[in-house]
Amino acid sequence: MTADKFGKICGIAALVLLAVGLATGMLVAPRERIMGDVYRIMFVHFPSWVGTAAGYLTAFVASIAYIKTRDFKWDYWGQAGAEVGLLFNVTGLITGALWGRPTWGVYWTWDPRLTTTAIMAITFAGYLVLRAFMEDPESRARAASLVAIVGFVNVPIVYFSVRWWRTLHQVQSSPETVDPQMVWPLRAMMLAFLLLGVFMMTRRVMLARLRGEEEMEMVRLEVARD
């Protein structure tokens, strides 16, 4: 099975799960005892971090593979993972702020979880800026790979921050601490965001490959003229 076909299957499955997850999360899951209906934003907020982790992990693994092999296909996957991961990262920050205002009283506080998450987003935004300003394909791929590898170090820090430091943000929930009627739509949405991330990355890799081939052809033409 090609990556293109696999990506399309993931995209279709993601749409189905999104429909099921949103419908059950909004219409079937009960109101939360303290927060009421405000908590329902978690059906987008939590899954966005699944997409974030999947994207950044892809960028991390692909970057290591590129440094080891110098094969540009890994650079394409690294770029795709960073872009998709950043998209979900920003989604998580925005939904978190919208959730924080009615529950904490503020949109933003310099809580360790929020701060490390913002640093993570800034790092991978820097990754994309770096790529935009470097013209040599090999130098760009090598420098970007190093940034992605270093940036990924922050991912486990973000995850464990609520356990390592006293924080306003609550620790991770588990199926044992959540109503069963909330668990299943949440799982459906988490899987949907994961599959959506895979779909988006496969599309982005195809575009990066086309642009990479055009770029290499221009380099060959310039060398031929000289």
UniProtKB/TrEMBL annotation:
Positions of the Cytochrome c assembly protein domain: 12-169
Organism: Candidatus Kutchimonas denitrificans
One Pfam family recorded for the sequence: Cytochrom_C_asm
InterPro entries for the chain: Cyt_c_assembly (IPR002541), Cyt_c_biogenesis_CcmC (IPR003557), Cyt_c_biogenesis_CcsA/CcmC (IPR045062)
Name the record gives this protein: Heme exporter protein C
GO BP annotation list: cytochrome complex assembly
Principal subcellular localization: membrane
Source organism superkingdom: Bacteria
N-terminal signal peptide: none
Function: Required for the export of heme to the periplasm for the biogenesis of c-type cytochromes.
Record membrane topology: Multi-pass membrane protein
Family (UniProt): Belongs to the CcmC/CycZ/HelC family.
Gene Ontology cellular-component terms listed: plasma membrane
Stretches that traverse the bilayer: 49-68, 80-100, 112-130, 142-162, 182-201
UniProt keyword annotations, A-Z: Cytochrome c-type biogenesis, Membrane, Transmembrane, Transmembrane helix
GO molecular function: heme binding; heme transmembrane transporter activity
Record localization: Membrane
Lineage: Bacteria, Pseudomonadati, Gemmatimonadota, Gemmatimonadia, Candidatus Palauibacterales
